[in-house]
Design a protein that fits this description.
The complex is a heterodimer of chains A (about 550) and B (about 725). In chain A, about 30% of the residues lie in helices and about 20% in strands. Chain A is built from 13 helices and 19 strands. The termini of chain A are far apart. Chain B is of the alpha+beta class and about 725 residues long. In chain B, strands 14, 15, 16, 21, 24, 25, 32, 35 and 36 form a nine-stranded mixed sheet that branches. Chain B has a seven-stranded mixed sheet with strand order 1-4-3-2-5-12-13, sandwiched between helices. A four-stranded parallel sheet of chain B has the order 7-6-10-11, with helices on both faces. In chain B, a hairpin with a 3-residue loop joins β2 and β3. Classes of the chains: A alpha+beta (about 550), B alpha+beta (about 725). Chain A: It comes from Shinella kummerowiae.
Chain lengths: ~550, ~725
């Protein structure tokens, strides 16, 4: 076989390795108990070489795991110790700083042996239903309150289950069947990946991953560096102001692009919050990297080499570089704004390629529904919903209405949610007029109204932003509508923290819209008329376009 | 161009006529049985006629303006071939892509959608997800019914089907007036939790029809009583959207068939692979979506029956896509939902969901016309863009400049440039090589042979990966399957695909060029009722469960009556179950006819057995729930004669040889060339070899040999 044939052969094996991790991820989606995994795709899965370098990763709903998980396997190898790794072992942790940023994400790593020799590792991470403590919410003052912390340890040793660990977990978390079920689902999905890998090594007559791994890393590095060479080089800065928990938060970034790499420096960002909206740096890095990759190298698969040129820096103790024991449970809220932050800087380097700001952070809603009186005998339920506002207008297209960005998760059908527990979702539809005006309009947010079923009330943990800081338009585009949280009697509620909705009252959420792009006057009259006809904007808003109600 | 097509079609029509004796040799003088299958595809309308087990078939060009014209022409031609009068046809079974095309091309009726207040935008908000994570400029498919045409009424059911908010007459009145003023032809109604209680939907339908009796009205609790509002709403809208056009077409077809002397009843094939009356099809036309591909799967299932194969994977590769379907115990696997009209590289989530029972197929953007290119990673990528038949692959020399899979097949020696489609289309290897050099060779430094090899390896790898993932999702191991392959490009790629998937045997049936139309003739009368209703085993209400299953059975039987001259119907009940808290349910076949107090234990045991088969191990101590229910009624399939075993005869010496690239060795070898028509049962062809026929060629790698079966099938096994 000549070199070109060998290269083609390598490409085939690379494709196969990506298929192996996709299969690993599918197995987890189909066996998981966690709502966010099975319904919303909140997970990641990947295969790693002997040094803990990621070779392939499944494309799933969570950019936040992109390089968070990529870096975790090296921690496992170090903490378990190379001499302590055996066939049949499975390792586990939920260390926010060595995994993916909060205790709810469990990372499980399985060493893969072929012919008795260690050839690599499989890792997977989902968001589990519960880890004890206060439950999923931003109210804790220290990570100790946020739940059970499992340092890197063995979940199975040579095939034997660590019953002590399971015993401790069962006695410290709510819905322990589902949590322990998810631990097993993680081990099973890694096992699927391992079996497929062995099939592949056998079919291609390989002893280990070194040759194919070398090929993947070399080509990925070269392709990424080629992109970087073709970008303008220099430094650009951008900042965002957000609601925070009890006081506003300022996020700042200086983006430096050079031929060898991209550095995002978060210097100038606010210090840590007293509450659980802090972000471990590994998670901020994942979203920074995702935002940049969307623009400069969208089709290069994620692996150690394609991610290596992207790095971040942040002063210790800033809110994007929170240190233990800071509370970090809802690190996703600020994390989801990091792409807006880096895209704002990138816009200056590459004008005309970057969308306006969007609602960005998911409006996740965790509800604990309970009977109002014991004699009713009804059972309570824990209910999680993922909801999205509008995305920012693109340079040549309107923003997406009620669609997640940067997160890639799905929402759940409200019919499924109402089958989980005693809640009624009275309304879930587009929020008219909430998209920022522009030559291209920002995406619309949505309106949601929720009431507990008769005989029940509920508490919910708010983790909503952009109530006071709407998504900004770009290049003359106007801001999207800010968000709102209230009861149906008009009582205003907070954007963050645990709150109560009594029986008979509805929680009313107004999700923010995306910012517009370009001057509204440049929007074609027929597009304005179309928006009025279908109720995406009001007659009054049509005046913003200078088109007198869009009469085209 | 149209002229040339016209000329070709006449020639094609003539050449493609076939007479094939399949199995049943007992032709007697008793009353004859004559059935006709008609499949309208994108390019051709295929007609197959079965007269007491002898098949005749033809292909005519699809007539877009009046599809029935092509049918009349083809039916007359095939009856003449068989030497029978049109009045002697006993049954005509029809499948069509018209409903699918109307959805893809958005050419449907002016349709209004009425839904529950608070949910006007469910159709538009979809899953709130981007189907491609790294593309900032994706466009989501627009809602089938635009926002201004979506209306709401005040009403609400809860998850148990109890009324939370009574239907508000004033809001109904307002909506009916708006519909009257809006000039709509068709109306879809979809309310929250209507799968559990459709009373409000039916009441609004009655209110509309009372004032506007000429409108066509579809309600979600009848069209698709499954949980998940986006999918159900979209399904009822799709039904309403295509209903007027399909009804008008079917009415015209029935009348014009009568006019030319066809006196038999006309039945339609549906997406679940069964047959229903024209009247049912007119009422629920969304069930006609994807009925053509379903015919291909039934065709493969029939071959599996005749050859006694229980674990089969059908592989149909055409010009634009490849389709893979699992066929176990000779029944194509079905699903409760699927997606049509994908708008972004066949990406899951980029189309519209339809929740009806359907023969489950994995569709990959990989066909003979799929275009090869080099991506940013300097890797060869194939598809999903296709050169289709116009302009076609570079080797057709009709203006296509991009290298395609067919070009790669030609360069590697799998195709004969002078004998493609029976010589109807001369191929230019020079043009293929030039395209490979221009688009791939010069970009990454490969010679045309290596570029062609890379193209075939990538497309085969893509299909093998999709097949492998699909079997894993169904808890199966792909290496245990036998492949049945058809379609223009299927037999050319099957051997390499089998090498990649670890499959040791594949079958290439005769008559595969009109496989779907033949499949229609083998389909049972059948209808599947699927409903969502959540029951926990921990407090299982068996009386309620019995009522539900009885109602579903009555519904299913209602659709198959009239087609039941073959004997008592076969009833299959399937429960879709999971551990409470999971999101993914698995099908569990239900043996018992009635539920009683013992049912809980039995259902739990059956579920755990299936769960272990899928996922390795059951989980102790968790509650189990039934989420959805399926009752399928079908006519029993008539017995088929098993294909008699043939003794392995002698190895045929090829008349000529050609250089053929052997992927496993990375080198060209001399391969024997055999005309399929010249082979007789028992003949053995050893790879590397090509077996040539008009519609396709079967490529055997060095690892395989083919034995010609008594029914003309090629049985290909690893040596």
């Amino acid at each position: 076989m000549n070199q070109s044939m060998i290269d083609i052969h390598m490409q085939v094996m690379w494709n196969r390795l990506i298929s192996v991790v996709e299969e690993q991820a599918q197995t987890l989606i189909r066996t998981a108990f966690s709502t966010s995994v099975r319904e919303a795709g909140d997970l990641s899965a990947g295969v790693f070489d002997l040094e803990g370098r990621m070779l392939a990763q499944a494309v799933t709903g969570t950019p936040g795991h992109v390089n968070a998980m990529a870096e975790s396997v090296a921690h496992f190898i170090r903490d378990i110790g190379p001499d302590n790794i055996f066939e049949g072992d499975v390792y586990i942790t939920n260390d926010p700083w060595k995994g993916t940023g909060h205790l709810h994400d469990i990372t499980v790593v399985t060493p893969s042996f072929h012919h008795g020799k260690l050839v690599g590792y499989f890792a997977s991470t989902p968001h589990v239903v519960d880890v004890g403590g206060r439950g999923f919410g931003p109210d804790a003052r220290e990570v100790y309150e946020e739940g059970l912390f499992i340092p890197i340890m063995k979940f199975f040793e040579r095939g034997d289950l660590n019953r002590t660990l399971i015993h401790i977990v069962r006695n410290n978390v709510r819905e322990n069947d589902k949590v322990v079920g998810d631990f097993h689902a993680l081990a099973a999905c890694n096992e699927t990946g391992h079996r497929r890998l062995i099939d592949m090594l056998t079919e291609f007559n390989l002893e280990d991953l070194s040759m194919i791994g070398g090929f993947i890393l070399k080509h990925s590095r070269e392709a990424t560096l080629e992109r970087l060479r073709n970008l303008p080089h220099g430094s650009w800065s951008y900042s965002l102001d957000l609601d925070g928990y009890d006081e506003p938060v300022h996020l700042a970034a200086k983006l430096t692009i050079g031929p060898e790499g991209v550095l995002v420096d978060f210097d100038g960002t606010s210090g840590m919050s007293k509450f659980g909206i802090n972000v471990p740096l590994v998670y901020a890095k994942a979203y920074a990297c995702y935002g940049i990759k969307c623009v400069v190298a969208p089709e290069i698969p994620n692996n150690a080499a394609s991610l290596a040129p992207f790095d971040v820096a942040a002063p210790e103790g800033c809110i994007l570089n929170a240190k233990r024991p800071a509370p970090v449970a809802v690190r996703h809220v600020l994390g989801h704004f990091v792409p807006d932050l880096v895209l704002g800087a990138l816009h200056q380097a590459l004008p005309g390629q970057v969308p306006a700001e969007g609602a960005s952070a998911l409006w996740n809603l965790h509800m604990s529904v309970r009977p109002v009186a014991d004699q009713i005998g009804g059972k309570g339920a824990e209910i999680l919903m993922f909801n999205s506002g509008g995305s920012g207008a693109r340079t040549a297209l309107d923003g997406l209405n009620a669609t997640a960005f940067p997160s890639g998760v799905h929402t759940m059908p409200i019919e499924a949610t109402e089958n989980v527990g005693p809640v009624i979702i009275w309304r879930k539809e587009l929020r008219e007029g909430s998209g920022g005006a522009g030559a291209h309009r920002g995406g619309l947010g949505q309106m949601i109204e929720i009431e507990a079923a008769e005989g029940y009330s509920f508490r919910f943990s708010a983790m909503f932003d952009r109530l006071n800081h709407p998504a900004r338009g770009r290049d003359g585009g106007l801001d999207g509508a800010p968000g709102g949280v209230a009861l149906d009697d008009g009582t205003a509620l907070k954007g963050k923290g645990l709150q109560f909705v009594p029986e008979g009252r509805r929680l009313v959420l107004s999700l923010p819209g995306g910012g517009g792009y370009g001057t509204p006057a440049d929007r074609p009259a027929d597009a304005v008329a179309h928006d009025v006809k279908h109720g995406y904007i009001t007659e009054e808003q049509a005046a913003l376009y200078g088109k007198a109600g869009g009469k085209a | 161009m149209r002229q040339r097509f016209g000329r070709r079609s006449r020639q094609m029509g003539f050449d493609a006529e076939r007479c094939l004796n399949v199995g049943n040799d007992m032709v007697s003088n008793a009353p004859r049985n004559c059935r006709v299958g008609v499949d309208i595809g994108g390019t051709f309308t295929d007609i197959a006629l079965d007269l007491d087990g002898v098949l005749h078939s033809t292909k005519v060009l699809t007539d877009y303006a009046a599809p029935e014209r092509a049918i009349l022409k083809g039916v007359a031609s095939v009856a003449e071939m068989a030497g029978i009068a049109l009045s002697e046809i006993d049954l005509l079974i029809h499948g069509t892509t018209l409903a699918t095309n109307a959805l893809i091309e958005r050419r449907g009726a002016r349709t209004a959608f009425v839904t529950t207040e608070g949910f006007r935008d469910t159709l538009e908000m979809r899953t709130e997800n981007r189907f491609e994570q790294y593309d900032l400029n994706i466009a989501l498919p627009p809602a089938l019914i635009a926002r201004a045409d979506r209306f709401t009424v005040r009403e609400r059911m809860n998850a148990a089907g109890k009324v939370l908010l009574a239907l508000d007459d004033a809001s109904v009145e307002a909506v009916v007036s708006a519909i009257a003023a809006g000039g709509y032809e068709s109306v879809a109604i979809g309310f929250i939790h209507a799968y559990a209680n459709g009373a409000h939907e039916a009441a609004v339908r009655d209110a509309i029809l009372e004032r506007l009796p000429h409108l066509s009205v579809s309600i979600s609790s009848e069209v698709s009583p499954q949980m998940r509002e986006f999918e159900r709403f979209n399904t009822v809208c799709a039904n309403a959207y295509v209903k007027p056009a399909i009804k008008s077409y079917l009415d015209r077809l029935v009348i014009s068939l009568k006019d030319i002397g066809v006196r038999c009843p006309v039945f339609m094939i549906h997406s679940g692979g069964g047959i229903v009356s024209v009247e049912s099809a007119s009422e629920f036309p969304v069930r006609l979506v994807e009925s053509g591909p379903a015919g291909g799967a039934i065709f493969a299932a029939d071959i599996a029956r005749r050859h006694g194969l229980d674990t089969v994977l059908s592989f149909d590769m055409g010009g634009t896509t490849a389709k893979i379907c699992l066929i176990e115990n000779q029944v194509p696997k079905t699903a409760k939902t699927f997606e049509v009209a994908r708008t972004y590289r066949f990406r899951k989530g980029s189309g519209m969901p339809i929740s009806i029972p359907v023969v489950e197929m994995v569709e990959i953007g990989a066909g003979g016309g799929s275009i090869a290119s080099v991506d940013g990673m300097r890797q060869i990528r194939v598809g999903p863009h296709s050169a289709a038949s116009e302009p076609g692959p570079a080797c057709y020399q009709r203006g296509g400049k991009n290298p395609t899979v067919t070009d790669a097949d030609l360069i590697l020696g799998k195709l004969d440039p002078n004998n493609f489609a029976g010589g109807a289309i001369p191929l230019s290897a020079a043009a293929s090589r030039q395209a490979m050099v221009d688009d791939i060779g010069t970009v990454i430094g490969l010679d045309p042979d290596a570029a062609a090899y890379g193209t075939c390896e990538m497309v085969d790898e893509n299909m093998a990966n999709a097949g492998r993932v699909h079997t894993v999702e169904n808890g199966k191991n792909i290496a245990d399957f036998t492949m049945i392959t058809f379609g223009g490009a299927g037999p050319l790629h099957a051997a390499r695909l089998c090498e990649k998937m670890g499959i040791s045997t594949f079958l290439v049936p005769a008559g595969a060029g009109v496989g779907s139309a033949i499949g229609f003739l083998r389909a049972p009368f059948g209808y599947e009722s699927v409903r969502s209703a959540v029951f926990n085993l921990s407090n299982f209400d068996f009386a309620e469960a019995n009522r539900l299953v009885d109602a579903m059975q009555a519904e299913a039987l209602g659709f198959v009556e009239g087609g039941l001259d073959r004997g008592a119907p076969v009833i299959e009940r399937t429960l879709f179950m999971r551990y409470a808290g999971q999101g993914w349910d698995i099908p569990v076949p239900l043996d018992a006819k009635k539920f009683d107090t013992d049912s809980t234990r039995m259902l739990a045991a059956q579920f755990e057995t299936e769960y272990e088969r899928f996922f390795g191990r059951a989980i102790e101590g968790l509650d189990i729930e039934i989420v959805s229910w399926s009752v399928k009624a079908s006519s029993p399939l008539p017995p088929v004669d098993r294909v008699a075993a043939v003794d392995e005869g002698s190895v045929v010496t090829p008349a000529k040889t050609r250089r053929l690239f052997e992927a496993s060795q990375g080198a060209f070898l001399d391969a024997g060339i055999h005309e399929r028509d010249g082979l007789k049962p028992g003949d053995v062809v050893k790879g590397p070899a090509i077996v040539v026929e008009r519609e396709t060629s079967t490529m055997l790698t060095a690892a395989f040999k083919a034995i010609v079966q008594s029914d003309g099938c090629l049985l290909v096994t690893r040596t």
